[in-house]
Amino acid sequence: MTQSDIQIRRVRPQDAAAITQLMGDPEVFGNLLQLPYPSEASWSQRLAQAPADQSLQLVAELQGQLIASAGLHGIGLHVRRRHAMGLGMCVAAEAQGQGVGSALMQALIDYADQWGHVLRIELTVFADNTRAIALYERFGFEHEGRQRGYALRHGVYSDVLAMARLHPNPPRWS
User: Fold this and answer.
1) Could you tell me the CA-to-CA distances from 83 to 80, 119, 140 in Å, in that order?
2) Is the pLDDT assigned to residue 113 strictly greater than 90?
3) In this structure, is the dihedral angle defined by the CA atoms of residues 39, 89, 103 and 98, taken in order, positive or negative?
4) Ordered strands of the 120-126 beta sheet
């Protein structure tokens, strides 16, 4: 698979079944804050209600098959935090390590830096997810801290790393 084989596009409500399948894979949801046995109805509702003006949710396809999802989401309603967005990403187990995450990250970073008025992108990643951590570091994310016992995963309270990326060249008046 090459970068040119991967198609990146905005998520659509009709992607609910494919996202449900992706999120139902134990290799995927174990590294997210998702739960096993996701509901297609809940994903349909979630996609239908996603505010397009406050977030960007993308998917990656390979030969028409949805293989990944990633997005930037507003942190909250606080006026003083409008410059920040949270990042979430998942890639199908069989597509990991093949450039899919990089293609999605490049699209999200371009949106944030060039169009989205985003100064800060924040995320948490399980501390043992070395592949994801390396991806984030390649795109300029820095470690900001470790949150111990952050989430229950496979019956064990697991640590996450808090990471963030600041816009390297924030917009200025020309």
Assistant:
1) 7, 5, 17
2) yes
3) negative
4) 6-10, 55-62, 65-74, 84-91, 120-126, 156-166, 142-153
Task: Indicate the burial class of 62 (C-beta count within 10 angstroms; 0-12, 13-18, 19 or more).
Answer: middle
What is the structure's pLDDT at 55? 87
- Cα separation, 153 vs 150, in Å, equals 9
Q: What pLDDT score does 49 carry?
A: 77
Q: Which of 145, 160, 144, 136 is nearest to 31 (CA)?
A: 160
pLDDT band at 102 (very low <50, low <70, confident <90, very high): very high
- pTM for the predicted model, two decimal places: 0.91
Element (H or E) spanning 45, and its range? helix 40-49
CB-CB contact of 120 with 167 (8 Å): yes
> CA nearest 101: which of 138, 54, 151?
138
Q: Which helix (H) or strand (E) holds 62?
A: strand 55-62
